[in-house]
Amino acid sequence: MTTSQTRTSLADTELAVLAQAGDRSAFGELVRRHGLAVRGLLRRMGAQPSLADDLAQDAFLVAYERIAEFRGQGAFAGWVKRIAARLYIKRCKRQLRLAELDGGGSEEALHTPGEAAAGRRLDLDGALKLLSPAERLCVSLCCGAGFSHAEVAEALKSPLGTVKSHVRRGLDKMKGHLTSEASASDRSAGAVSARGGHV
Questions:
Q1: Do the beta carbons of residue 94 and residue 110 sit within 8 Å?
Q2: Whether 141 and 56 share a structural domain
Q3: Residue 119 and residue 61 in one domain
């Protein structure tokens, strides 16, 4: 068995131990395994594709530099997602400060709304795009990165009640959107079936 085949069969915690000992290929395997998930989280939080790629790379660089801090008490993927989420929050805060200096200062200056989901399939990313930037960020951090409400409140320097409200409103909006999309899809499938077409 080659070294690369051995690496792919190891658990994340074993790879982290090897990386702590200076094995760069072990850390490379961790990046290969979890890079897509980290970029996906950043996209759901509102980052454009190129920014999500950059921040994911930055998150893995930070993780590599701090690999000794990973104790294996939780999943490596969750640990690196938290790093990525914090980097994204810092960037948003920096953009907000710059927007305030330029006389802007609205939350909408941070994000551009995405295109509506194409077709009639259930689309979680499309539902996330319908949320306000604050709701999307709070929902993504709680449901995507595994932050508690209190951790999100601390990271965003927002009151706990505000974070809870953003999460609840965001989840309610998403549920409503996904439910209405499913109903519309069922109705259109029923109409085709009633006309003698195939579904």
A1: no
A2: no
A3: no
Residues sharing a CB contact under 8 Å with residue 31, sequence separation 6 or more, in sequence order: 60
One domain, residues 99 and 123: no
* Number of domains the chain contains: 2
CA separation for the pair 174, 176 (Å, rounded): 5
Are residues 96 and 167 located together in one domain of the fold? no
Amino acid at 27: F
For residues 199 and 151, state if they share a domain.
yes
Do residues 119 and 164 both lie within one domain? Answer: yes
Q: Which domain does 75 fall in, by range?
A: 1-112
Q: Which amino acid is at 165?
A: S
Statement to judge: residues 136 and 175 lie in one domain: yes
**Which pLDDT tens digits describe the chain residue by residue (199 residues)?**
446 667 788 999 999 999 999 999 999 999 999 999 999 999 988 889 999 999 999 999 999 999 999 988 889 999 999 999 999 988 888 877 776 666 554 444 444 333 333 343 457 778 888 899 889 889 888 887 888 999 888 888 889 999 999 999 999 998 888 887 767 666 665 555 555 555 4
Query: Is the whole model's pTM more than 0.70, yes or no?
Result: no
Same domain, 103 and 124: no
